[in-house]
Each structure stands twice: as structure tokens, then as C-alpha cells.
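User: Assemble these into one structure.

Assistant: Restating your components, then the assembled model:
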Amino acid sequence: MLEIAHLGVRFGGLLALEDFCLTVPVGGLYGLIGPNGAGKTTVFNVVSGFLQPASGTVIFRGQNLQGLPPHARTALGMARTFQNIRLFGDLTVLENVMVGFHCRSRAAWWEAVLRLPRYGREEKRRQLRAWELLEEVGLREVAWEPAGQLPYGHQRRLEIARALATGPRLLLLDEPAAGLNPQETLELLQFLKQIQEHHQLTMLVIEHNLRLVMELCEHLTVLDHGLTIAQGPPAEVRQDPQVIRAYLGKQ
Amino acid sequence: MFLKESAIRNFWLNLGALALLALFLWGAEHFANEYQVRLLNNMAIFVTLAVSYNLVNGICGQLHLGPNAFITLGAYTAALLTLTPQQKELIFILQPLVWPLSQITLPFALALLCGGLVAALFGFITGFPVFRVRGDYLAIVTLGFGEVVRVLANNLQSLTNGPLGLKGLKPLTNLWWSWGVAAITIILIRALVNSSYGRAMMAIRDDEAAAQAIGVDTFRHLMLAYILSAFFFGVAGGLLAHLITTISPTLFTFFLTFNLLIIIVVGGLGSTTGAVLSAILFTLAGEWLRIVEEPHTLLGVTIPGIPGLRMVFFSFLLLLVIVFFRQGLLGRREFSWQSLGRFLRRFSAKVSTGHI
Ligand SMILES: Nc1ncnc2c1ncn2[C@@H]1O[C@H](COP(=O)(O)OP(=O)(O)OP(=O)(O)O)[C@@H](O)[C@H]1O
Ligand SMILES: [Mg+2]
């Protein structure tokens, strides 16, 4: 599904990522962990096309993504969320999800302006599926509220729903549990497993909450200061002395 | 289905509103004086301009400061196409107009269309550099267009007749043309804004990176809004030219853009309804405030007329709106038949219970 090879990113003198390699198979539930500033979000930014790496390649579903802008990568079947939630605050919850479907639209703008049949069919389908998605993530009741006014936990769910609307095969989640209490985190865990199954997703999740990651992921990559210090199944990674040092060193 | 029914009802209501407008225009044509007709024409053209401007600035959230350039292009193009070969020979005394323009005369509708297309082409060409940047930089780049077009109009003698401009255009702009174009602009732009494409544009306004991340090709959507607005600026420019009947390179300066900016901010950035109402109010206020620019005798003291004092009033008005109505008069609300119906029902309920 996703093959990242020998990625290198630097910001001025800072080495944000060095020789990063990761292969995520189809259907995989992979985790990316590490202390603050380790370079996790940087990996997402490179994969989703917001950042050009100094070196290395990203291959997604057999295609080299070199030079492709973010929207083209989304069209190929990947979607991401942001660490600091980024919704369209002035649009309603429903509209946020509807925008997600827009990238699959085939009707041209003039068909939309003239309300020609193809556009009409597409728009109707978008509406139906948007309601289904809202039902699935439990936001049906707040569909008409401006997204910016939702409580925090709902905003996280909406951001995921909006990403799902683009029809991704690979979902990149940047700290989905940040700011949630233990109860909500548990619900999120169930929710993620559920959508993974329902949408047949491959997932790569950045998360500080180790409990969530250990429960959810079948494979972990640990970053520290841009270097990959461990890689493997959660149980193994947990025992790794370097990982323990990186995490204890932080505290 | 419910949705379908209300769509059909809205269609008839819209058609009814258009018929009312037509009736009003017919009345104005027969009973209004020349001054009032001119005012109504101006009003319609400003409605067209404001609604188009709002598409880029209010819906897409990009601070575009170059409408006057597009208006000038449309005005010149349309004017050159309606003038007769004889007129052109008389006007272009220093350098003759280039062939084949010197021989062509088109009907008004086609001339307006060409004005719009030339402006749209200018939009297409400039769009590439414009949308490489954002924010203040985009504002500065587009601000330069007015200047570029002015310099071109001044120096391309054999195309524009230079600083002398074009005189003696036929006064072809009448109420039907001006309000017809305004109605078409409103209908098309509202249809776009209320579509999937319009939603994507608003998404770009709210958070461009997030829009890209969910697959919105931001460049294409911004280009679309920018070129469409350019087209309507061009058509409106053609209408203005045939209303004023004389155009010159310095006629449409940044001052015009500034007025449009005031209109859409006062109306509520992002609201088409607001842009329409605000443009109408602005045109009326501009006429009422003419008084302040005329000489007055107050308590035996004669105050000379101060030209430009109107703008002081407008600036003050803008200040008030920004301080007291952050979102403009309408915010991002839009007129809809449903909301009118709700309002009327509430109103009649109040009347019948004697609360009014
Ligand atoms: N655009 C940028 N310009 C300069 N430096 C940056 C930029 N983005 C990230 N960095 C730096 O790169 C390093 C890695 O950042 P990154 O955001 O990938 O960390 P992270 O692992 O996601 O951390 P966190 O857990 O805090 O989210 C940090 O030191 C950060 O300051
Ligand atoms: Mg991060």
C-alpha cells in the first residue's frame, strides 16, 4: 500500500527526519510514536504532499508520488487529519463532509451552475452518503451546526468523517486521541477499529497515548530526533531499551 | 420528495420576481425621468460588479484589488466593437486604428460578450502568477493590474487612441441591458456558490491546507472564480462605457475598486444578497450625498462646495460598519423564499394577536 524509503528532511540546520523507511501493507494498522519533535508529523506532511523531502521516495499503490500536490494524492486514495484539528469552521457539519466528496465529482462547474442531470445525480448521492457517514460517526444530530462550534471530541470525529468522504484506502491520523479523556479514548479505539473494518482501510496512526497504540496497532515505528530507533510488533517495541530510554529521558 | 417540491416552488417564485422586475423596468422606462433612469442603470451595473467581486473576495476569501483593470478592458473592447468605421476614422486622428478592428461593427450584445471574454482572457493569463501567492502579496499583485492596463491604454495609440480616449459611443445601455445582465450575473453566481464547487471555494476560504488535504484542487477553483468574475467585470465595463459614452485610460481607477470593496464589506463579505442590497444603497447614497458637495448658504455664510466630501462620508460609514457590524449588514446570510415565508408568517401572527 505505502512504501516509504530513505526519507530525509531538514529545516535549516535541523535534521527533522533521517533515512526513514516504512512499508505499510494493505489492511495494516500501523503506529508511529515518539517524543515531542521526533518528526512524526513531518512524515505525514511528506506523504500527503505538503512538504518536499530532501531525499527519499514515497510509493503509494505502486505509484511514485514525487512532485504530486496534496489534492492529487487524495485523489489516488489517501486522506489525512491534522494534529491541530482543521475544519471549515464557517461551514456546517454536513457541508464539511460534502466538501470531502467533491474530489470524486465528475460533473464540470458549468454542469453544476446549470444544474444539469449529471450534477443533480451526483449531488443527491453526495447528500445521501454524507448523511450515512454522519450517522456512522454519530454526528447526525448536529448536522446543521457550524463546524467551528462543535465540542472538541465531535470536531475530531468530524475531521475523520470528512477524510472518509474522500473515499480513501489509506488513512493517516495525526494524534486522534489528543485532548480526549480515558473514556473518550476507549470509544475512539472502538470507533477506529469499526471504521477500519467498514471502509477496508489501511491506517497509519501517530499517537502519544501508548495504551491506545498498543491496543490498536499491529506494528509500531518509534522515532526520536528524526531517527528510527525501533520498529516491530508493539510487544517487542515496548521491551526495547532504546525506546524506554527515549521515553524516560523525556520525563 | 419534499426537496423537489420546494425546488419547483422556488423556481416559480424566482420567475415571479423576475416578472416583477420586468414590470418595474417597463414602468421606469415610461414614467421615470432621464436622471432616474441613469441612476437605475448605474445601480444595476454596480450590482453586477459587487456580486462578481464578492465571488473572489467574499466566497473564496482572496483579497483581489484589480477589478478596475478588468472593467477598463471590457469597456474598451466593447466600445471598439460598437463604433462604426466612420466614427473610428474620425476618432483615431493621431494614429489609425489597427485593421481589422477599424472595419468591424458588432451588435451591442456581441460587443458586451467580447468585452467579457477579453477580460476573462486577461484573467486566465494573470491568474497563473496571481495564485502563486496569497494574502497581502496577492493584493499587491492585483493592485498593479489597474496601473498596467492604464499604461497600456495610454500607449497603445493605434488600439486605444491613447490619452484622448474614445468619444461619441452610442448610448446603448438601457434598463433592459443593465438589469438583464445584473439578473443573469446574480442567478449564475448564486447557482455556482450553492453548488459543490461553491462549497469547495468556501472551504478554501476557511482553511486552504485542509481543503487541499481533502482533494480540492485549490488553484483550479480559485482560477474559476477569478476568471468568471473577470468576465462579468468586462461585461459591466462594456455597459458602463455605453452609459457614459466617453471613455479614457484614467476613467476607471483604483477608486472604483475601493468603492466596490466598501460595497461588499458593508453588505457582508460572502453574502450575495448583501452585495446586491449594498450596491443599491451605495448608488442611492452617492446621489443623496451630492448635496454635501454643493455650495450652501448657511446663516448668511456661504460654504463652497467641496468635491470629494462624499468619500469622507463613505469612509466614515465604512468605519461605523466595521466597528458596529463586524460582519457587515447581512453577515453571510442569504435571502431565500423560505426565510421570507417564515418572516411573513411571524409578522402576520404578530399582527393578528395585536402585538404590533
Ligand atoms: N515547517 C517547519 N519549519 C521548521 N521546523 C519545523 C517545521 N515543521 C517541523 N519543524 C521541526 O521539525 C521537528 C519535527 O517536527 P514534527 O512536527 O514532525 O514533530 P512531531 O513528532 O510531530 O512532534 P509532536 O509530538 O510535538 O507533534 C521539530 O523540531 C519541529 O520544530
Ligand atoms: Mg506532530
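Residues A 11, 14, 16, 34, 36-42, 83 surround adenosine-5'-triphosphate (ligand 1) (CB under 6 Å).
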